[in-house]
Amino acid sequence: MSRTIYKPPVQKGFGQFVDALVVLALVYLSLLAPLLLGGTAAESDAPADKPVATWEAMQQNETMAAQWQKLGFDAEKAEPIVSKKFSYEIEAWSLGITVAVIAAYFFFVLKVSDREYREVINERFGPRTGKED
Amino acid sequence: MGTTTAAAGKQEKISLLKVLGPVHVWALGVGIVLVGEYMGWNFSVAKGGAYGALIACWVIGLLYTCVAMIDSEVTSTVAAAGGQYTQAKHIIGPLMAFNVGLYLVMAYTMLEAADALVVGDLLKAVAAQYGAELDPRPFVVLTIAFLAWLNYRGVFMTLTVNFVITAFAVLAILVLFFSTTGIAGGESVLRHSELLTDLPYGWIGVLASLQFGMWYYLGIEGTCQAAEEVRSAGRSIPLGTMGGMMTLLIAASLTWYICTGLIPWEYLGQATTPLYDAARLTGSVELEVILFIGTMFAAIASANGCINDSSRAWFSMSRDRYMPHWFGAVHPRYRTPYRAILFLIPIAVSFAFTGLLDQVITFSILSGLLGYTFMSFNIVRFRRLWPLGSIERGYVHPFHPVPAIVLGLLCGATYFATYLGYGTSLLSIMAFYILVSIWFVVRRYPYVKRGEQFTMPWPRPKGY
Fold this sequence. Notes:
The complex is a heterodimer. By secondary structure, chain A is an all-alpha fold. In chain A, 58% of the residues lie in helices and 0% in strands. The radius of gyration of chain A is 29 Å and the shape is elongated. Chain B has a single domain (28-447), classed as Amino acid/polyamine transporter I, CATH 1.20.1740.10. In chain B, strand 1 (2-5) and strand 2 (11-14) form a beta hairpin. The longest helix of chain B is centred in the last third of the chain and has 43 residues, at 402-444. Chain B is globular, with a radius of gyration of 22 Å. Chains A and B meet through helix 1, helix 2, helix 3 and helix 4 of A and helix 5, helix 9, helix 12, helix 14 and helix 15 of B.
């Protein structure tokens, strides 16, 4: 059997320029999307009963307080940093969507890649004869 | 090989120069990553406390040991620029290769932007210490422009510079360790018993800290990008990569030990330059100067390595027409992928000035993580399509398939950690890779020459 060689079209300069721009536009869009959708790092709301800005109230012992001061922070300046807390709430639906999206992505990429890979191998080595393995 | 236009106007084939040895491979890998010890790893302290960060350091260290083992085998066998991209092309198929190439370009270009920001921020902080105000932006642009020029002029000089400045940055950590622990003389200034606390968020915090734990090692797999430019891929890549991994495991553990013994965890979790802050806390001007230079060198070495790697990945994709072919040119005199280098520079600068550092870092980490996920099934398929003995391998990693399984499981845990901290970003970045994959299938794949995607002198893969 003779090999069929695929001959791709030649792309003009303008088309190449547009293609580079498309990828860049998608990158910037995905960087901005979390801001537009209103969600980045998972921080909890500031507690209603905020402690008074003293080292004791912030549970900082003498050594900790001394190190904060050497770094140029008094208790009041350190308070926003010490009281900042993360919230690790797991919502079943959003976790489910995330898992599904990642799985679907890899499934799609692997499935299409396999089809394309067969084209590559058939062109490189010729069509299968059934005696290869 | 790439194409370039000769003076007479006709097209010539010119290849990249084979001038690198194991030391350069080490300098490329450690150079890219070491900045993670100087900044970035400490965000894992905010996520899970000091002990959480230590657990993350070792668990993610295991993930990267698996990456280094797998990479050493595949890259020493598939020795071509593009590293994992070229591996994917030969083992999985074009769409996977396109995605892997983009993971590399995005991970390194965004890391480069973060590195340049560190240079600017550090200069601004030091100026502020002396009562001066400094706009860091010109320094960010200058850093990237200078490194781009270095990369444009040739890979040997680029990575020789990287070796010198990376070695200094490693030594700076060792000097700080010996000085603060009292091993070099005097009393230890570390106060672990008074500064360390229990896990602030319990074990869920430890899981969450895995995301930024990747900063201890993110980019070590970039050693593969040098595969086409090393004199002996079978020797240099495994030696440079595994040596680099050992250096990083030691440097990461020392960094954690020094910083948590000097800095309260709440401050450490948000510090921009934790090792420099640790040096300030010792009260020694000499240590402060050494760590200032160390931080600058680490950030510059990382940006330098990132330019090297992102341009190789972009160049390789363009050479194969996965991306516009114009970028797949090699400089006729310097033998570098100069168009890819120049194209990515303004992009890195723009990332640095978006004001979205959180997003940029998450994009970089997640792109790296997607690449590691690919590696876990890539090695299984590599061994299945070409069993041991069927082709010549530069290196065979032991205990297969254990590293692949462990890598897959740890990648799953790190996706979960990213979901905990940056769930929306995770989804938007996945949306990017899905959209761009569809775009490749519809728009770019028709330009790809099918048979030319397989260039290794191997027999037909089993089952195909």
